[in-house]
Structures are given as C-alpha cells and as structure tokens.
Design a protein that fits this description.
Structural class: alpha+beta
Distance between the termini: 20 Å
Helix content: 25-40%
Number of strands: 16
Number of helices: 18
Length: about 450
C-alpha cells in the first residue's frame, strides 16, 4: 500500500497498549480437527472471541457445517475477548500468519487498517454461496464498507435493551392488552413509569439496573439517547467536531436523574437484582439466556424513545478476512463458503439473544416464535452506532476516553454540563490524532461507505 510495515510495538500500542503483551500466552481453544491430519480437500482456520453461551452456539453451527461439508476442515480457535484478541489478530495479519477467517466488531473495522490488516470480501463469491447485499439491513451492511469495498460481513446486531418484569408491571398497571410494557415517548412518561413500578416492587431492591459504575454500559446508553436527540459527532469529511454539548447535557442529566430520584442503587448487581424482583434493568441482549434460564416472567424492548426518536445502541459481530499475502485459492473460497453458511443458518445464534443480520431469518416461523427476541427485533431498523472512525468500536479508544466521564456525571462526581464540554474537547483531540495502525487521522482514513 506504499506505507511502511507495522512493527510489533506499533501493533501493541494500537490494539490496547503494551500491557497486553503478557496476554499472548492465553489459550486458543479449538474444536476442529487439525486440517493437516484430516482427509479434507482444504481447510479454514477461524479465530473468534466467543465464549460462554455464544461459544456453545457457534460450535453447534460449525459442527453442522462440518457434517454437511466434510471436505472442508474447520480449525476454530477461541481467543480472549477484547483488546488481546485484536492485538493478536493484528500481529498475525502483519506477520503473514493470519487465519483464513476471523470475527470482529464492525465498529472496530475502520481502525483496523483495511487493505493492510484486512482483505476485502469477494462479493461475487459470497453471492455464489447465497449471501447478497439485499438480504441485509442497508445501514448495517454499509458499516462494513470502506472505500467502496466490503471488509465486514455482518453476522448479527447486538443491542442494549430495557428488560422488564411482567409480574411487577402488571401490579402497577404498566402492561398493555398484549402483556407488553406500555409505550413511553418522553422523559416525563418514563419517570412516571418508574414511580409507579417503585410503589409495587419488593422492598430493598432498586427499581432499575443501570450499570452506573461501568464505563462501557454508560457510554452505550449515552450513544443511544444522544442519537435519539439527533446528535451528530463529526462532519462527513471527519475534519470538524459537530458534537452538541447542549444535547449531551440533556442526556447526561437524564441518566443522572435515575440516581438522584432514588431509582438506582449505585454499584448494585443489576442482573442479580432483576432476577430477585427488580422491575427493570438495562442490559445487552446477551442477557436473554440468563433471564430465560431463571424462568422469569419478563419482556425486553429497545431502550425507550424518551427523546421522541427510536434509537438503541447497537454493535455487530461480523466476519472478516485477516490479511494474507497472496490470499486466494481453495482456502479463501472455503472461508467465504463457511462465513456464508453461518450467516444463513443463524437461528441457533438467535437463541443467544442476538438479532441475526441475515434478514430472511427474521421472517421465519422459528424466529418469530422466539421470545422476547420477537419483541425487540425492530431494533434492527433504528440502530444507534458510534461514528465510523478509527478510534470507535467495542473496547475502542472512544469508549475508553468518554465512558469514564459519563460515569462521573451519572454517579454525581461531576456536573453534566461540565462533562459535556469535556467530551467535546476529547472528541476534538481524538479527531486530530493518528491511528497507530497506519499513522493516519480519521480524515485521512477514507472510511467512507
């Protein structure tokens, strides 16, 4: 690409700091047979970051593929979630030791030096295996497009949700005729709902779990409500900060009010309190298996549109092609075939709470019977996402820089208006900073759909 190769120090600094170097000893747990010892015609080495229930669901999908396509040997490795995963993936791509297939959060793709550390998908080859652009939400598909090329093939979106206890809300007369939470369209209506729920809830529990001390959740909630207000981040050229401090202050004051009005117990275990009877909790959709496993009578909706416009924070797991010198041939085609298969057979993935990205899945009777998934599937159409810049995405620099100051406002150690000004100043510095992966600013990165 005409730029100097990345060295080890640059990669470590870019993906999360030199401290993660010591994590390279973590285990890569694979379930597939070693391709070199098999009789398959080709192989696919596949790195992912899925553990727990997600890991089990992914393994089930891979095993189904192996059974249907025994001539392709899949060697899957599960690596440590977060920056250690991205560091290892970057170093493997830079050192020509990358697997044929990987997984990333779509928000991280723009910063992963597409064209150097990631190879673009062959959309004609994907179409050969049944995956086409028209089968995806347009906004979601475009998030994986950089400089006109597809670098991320979406598997799902995962969103922040408002979980509610139907047994508690029924006592407070907060359910509609279909047994779902009544609609909320303003901050006043929302706090009125919380007031009524608090009057009938168990003593000693908070009314809503809000992850007040967690920088990631507080940042995700901020993104959702700032988007509801129509807040902008940067201009299209990524040369000017358009962040609206007044709108940000509105959001920060809204989050803070949950604490000052006594609906939140700061630091309380959110999921545990919900299981024990708290009326509400805001959690990611990955909590669905936990709450369903606890046999709760509950529902889940996208975050309430308290500022008038529907928008709930969303990220996406997506398949990527880590850079390989001379990528092509049978292994590359097999990577396309495997990714296309998993994307199209995501009913198993939906059991973990994620919304499948492949829209034909959403119209199947099997998916429409899933509860509460069928209640929040509409989130696909109003995703609140971070800006498409190199420093955004799950566990990215943006969340690390701005998440803690949102926490300081919610918990009361700083004033919302002052925090909003701090956020704008930090955004200004980030916009001017260079991506350690390739030494380019957001304006120079070409991250244009």
């Amino acid at each position: 690409m005409g730029r100097p190769d990345l060295n080890r120090r640059q990669l470590l600094a870019a993906a999360g700091g030199l401290a993660v170097a010591g994590s390279f000893g973590f285990a890569a747990l694979g379930t597939g047979a070693d391709a070199l010892a098999s009789n398959a015609r080709t192989r696919v080495r596949y790195w992912n970051l899925f553990s727990g229930g997600d890991g089990s669901n992914m393994i089930a999908m891979l095993d189904a593929f192996r059974k249907e396509y025994p001539d392709i040997a899949v060697k899957d490795s599960t690596l440590q979630w977060g920056n250690p995963f991205y560091t290892k993936l970057a170093m493997a791509a830079a050192g020509n030791r990358a697997p044929e297939l990987g997984v990333m959060h779509v928000g991280r793709v723009a910063g992963f030096s597409p064209g150097r550390l990631l190879d673009p998908w062959d959309v004609a080859l994907l179409a050969k295996y049944g995956v086409r652009q028209e089968d995806f939400n347009p906004a979601l598909w475009s998030r994986g497009v950089i400089d006109g090329k597809l670098y991320a093939l979406p598997l799902d979106i995962h969103v922040q949700l408002c979980f509610y206890r139907k047994d508690v809300l029924k006592k407070a007369d907060l359910l509609d005729d279909d047994g779902r939470m009544i609609p909320v369209t303003s901050t006043d209506e929302w706090f009125d709902v919380l007031k009524k729920a608090k009057q009938v809830q168990k003593k000693g529990l908070q009314t809503i779990g809000l992850w007040t001390n967690d920088q990631n959740f507080q940042w995700w909630f901020f993104v959702a409500f700032y988007t509801q207000l129509g807040g902008e981040w940067f201009n299209d050229a990524r040369t000017e900060v358009l962040f609206d401090a007044d709108k940000a202050t509105q959001v920060l004051e809204f989050l803070r009010q949950h604490v000052t009005d006594g609906y939140v117990i700061p630091g309380a275990p959110t999921g545990e309190q919900f299981v024990n009877g708290a009326p509400f909790t805001w959690e990611g959709n990955w909590s669905v298996p936990v709450f369903s496993g606890a046999k709760l009578d509950y529902g889940a909706t996208p975050l309430p549109p308290v500022f008038g416009k529907q928008a709930t924070h969303a990220e996406s797991h997506a398949f990527v092609l880590p850079h390989q010198a001379g990528r092509g041939g049978a292994t590359n085609e097999a990577a396309h075939e495997l990714a296309a298969y998993v994307v199209q057979h995501a009913q198993q993935w939906a059991a973990g709470g994620h919304i499948p990205a492949y829209t034909p899945t959403l119209s199947t009777p099997e998916y429409q019977k899933l509860t509460p998934q069928n209640e929040y599937v509409s989130a696909m159409d109003h995703q609140a996402t971070e800006p498409k810049v190199w420093f955004a995405g799950s566990t990215g620099v943006l969340a690390q820089d701005l998440g803690p100051v949102v926490v300081s406002s919610t918990t009361g150690s700083a004033k919302p208006a002052a925090v909003a000004r701090t956020m704008k100043n930090r955004l200004t510095k980030l916009l001017a900073s260079k991506n350690p992966m390739d030494g380019r600013t957001a304006a120079q990165g070409g991250a244009v759909a």
